[in-house]
Every structure is written in structure tokens, then in C-alpha cells.
Amino acid sequence: MTLDPTLPDQPGFRLARGVARMLRSFDHAVLCEFVPARGLRVDVISISPLGEIWIVECKSCRSDFVGDRKWQSYLEWSDRYFWAVDGDFPDDLLPADTGLIRADAYGAEILRESPLTKMAAARRARLMRDIARVASIRLQALTDPQGAGPM
């Protein structure tokens, strides 16, 4: 049996990979591990074809969710907010007014749509700029690792 070298070891990263694949299938521009503001780090952020900003937080188990004290701070940085969990996660823990995605390392499915809450225009402009800069720097690091400079 050959192991997939692209498959992350950590459960949260596996969920993020499946979520990113699903979002790309919806024609979203996807970025994993993004910092929208100091002290915050989201698992997956994407820009939809309509320009909506989606944030998806991946939770691998009950304790991962219970220990997350910052998730409500992410709401102001997105138009739609989702949780991504695997098939064993107790869904009743998750707030009903947020979206729900069932995921694994190979794909994902939206089980509950997130309500649309448009963020302020100035915040959207800043976030779009920051996403573009981070994505560009990461691409440069892939194409020229020695010339990309610090991230």
C-alpha cells in the first residue's frame, strides 16, 4: 500500500484539504491558514465568484471545539461562517446559526448553509488586499523558494 504524500497527518489539516477541494469545485479562491487580524488564524478562507468571504473552521473532535475561545471573533471577518467536521463529530455541539460542512481529506459537503451577513465595505477591501498579498507571497515561495524572502 502506497501512502499519499500529499495527505496531511493532522486531522484538522485533512478536513481543511477536503473543504478546500469542495470550495474550489464551487469556483472559490481558497486559502488555508490565514490571519485576518492579529491573534486570529482561520483554517480556511475563500472568496466566492460573487465576492463573498467565507470562513471555515475545521474541528476534529469535541475538545477541539470546546477549547476554541476565539471563533466568534471570526464572524466579523466573513460574510458566511461554517464549521467543518468529520462523520463522528457530535453536530449538536455546533451553533445552529452557523453553517455546517461534513468533510474528510478528499472532499466535503455542505449540510447546513450559513446565513449571509455582509461585512463592512472597508473591512472587505482590507481583507481582499490581505488575501491577495498572502496568496501572491505563497505562490512566489513555491516558484522561487530562495528568492521569495520572509513571509
Would you kindly provide a brief summary of this structure?
With 151 residues, this protein is α/β, with parallel strands linked by helices. It has four helices and six strands.
Report the order of strands and helices. HEEEHHEEEH
The end-to-end span amounts to: 37 Å
User: C-alpha Rg, in Å?
Assistant: 16 Å
Low-confidence stretches: none
Oligomeric state as shown: single chain
Overall residue-averaged pLDDT value: 92
Number of discrete helical segments:
4
What does this structure look like?
Helices cover 31% and strands 25% of the residues. It has four helices and six strands. It is globular. The chain has helices spanning 11-25, 62-66, 71-74, 121-143; strands spanning 29-34, 42-47, 53-59, 80-85, 99-104, 107-112. It has 151 residues and is α/β, with parallel strands linked by helices. Strands 1-2-3-4-5-6 form a six-stranded mixed sheet.
Short descriptors:
151 residues, alpha/beta, six-stranded mixed β-sheet, 6 strands, 31% helix, globular
Q: What does the secondary structure layout of this molecule look like, with pairings?
A:
Layout: H1 11-25, E1 29-34, E2 42-47, E3 53-59, H2 62-66, H3 71-74, E4 80-85, E5 99-104, E6 107-112, H4 121-143
Parallel strand pairs: 3-4, 4-5
Antiparallel strand pairs: 1-2, 2-3, 5-6
